[in-house]
Amino acid sequence: MAADMENPFAGFGLPGKPGTDEFWAAARTPASVPAEDGGWVTLFLWRGPESAGIGFESWSEPVPLRRWGDTDCWYAEVQMPARLRMTYQFLVGEEAHADPFNPVGAGGDRSIAATPDAPAQPHWPVVRADDVLPVPRTRLRWASERLGGRRTVRVHPAGGGGPVVLLLDGDDWLYLHPATTAFDSAVAGGDMPPVTLVFLPTRDRKAEFGCRPELWEAVRDELLPMVAESGVPADLDRLVVAGQSLGGLSAMYAALEFPHLVSRVACQSGSFWWTPDAMGLADPLGGPVGGAIAARLRERPDLSGLRVAFDVGEHETRMLPHCALTEALAEQAGATVRVSRSASDHDRAGWRQPLLRDVAWALGAR
Fold this sequence. Notes:
It is built from 9 helices and 17 strands. It is of the alpha/beta class. Strands 10-11-13-12-14-15-16-17 form an 8-stranded mixed β-sheet. Strands 3, 4, 7, 8 and 9 form a 5-stranded antiparallel β-sheet that branches. A hairpin with a 5-residue loop joins strand 5 (66-67) and strand 6. The longest helix is centred in the middle third of the chain and has 15 residues, at 214-228. It starts with 20 loop residues before the first helix and ends with a helix.
């Protein structure tokens, strides 16, 4: 805590005494300053009568806020590493809130912060927590015989449409992160060719994204024929599957077991620790490195027709060995591989720019 009791947060660019009208009128956080031992110290503020904390998507355990005197100002000065973009929310009692002092939102109750040295994310617009994201007009009502239940699949022709990009966890890319706007911008800016986005929602991630054939049989035999008949221009012969975490695992599984369907993959932070029994373990990531996918890759399937971009957050320390082995084995099996590390932990805020870049690369555009 700074020694200046009248202006304790001046080092973060905030004037005035905490709790005053002058202070709150100028409050813009998170705000970061260089830490003495490297990285950053980042200030978070919350205004309210009761205690609060900060919940992070994956990077850190929750951090409690401290109260400034008897004011309505709650704060935390959080040590952060270099190059980090992450999602967070304020936790007050049983409720979660977006940061009212941060204009960058992700859904109604989350915000996104980045350290000053984190790379920019071109094409992704600033979206406030109370903004309503644009939803594609074309919707398909999919009642799957193989998967059971009904789900709504949205379809968006970016730049007039082209190769199909199947976005796993599609509802996150519809309602938390503005993928339609970002892809439109990337196409308009010449960073990728026109594409047709298909937003695939999931009902049970653990069941559907495990290494089981039902999802991909349903995509092949049920969903893609519906897309072809939707009236939206869609090139099914150049399908790209984009998945994150368990979705990345599923995308790689599909490339291995359904090579005539999936030959282009954009995979961010794939859950390559997965084995059939891993979910029941106290430490799911503590099993064999590379999990079931590495075991399958050791059989040396012919992946000469596969083009796969792998990305994982540089702060995902326990994920990195699983991903690195999978990347190496895929290349040894003949796949054309692109490998990168992003300024994030296991967080969709960090997956956004790799999603655009790697889809474009999978299509051979970059």
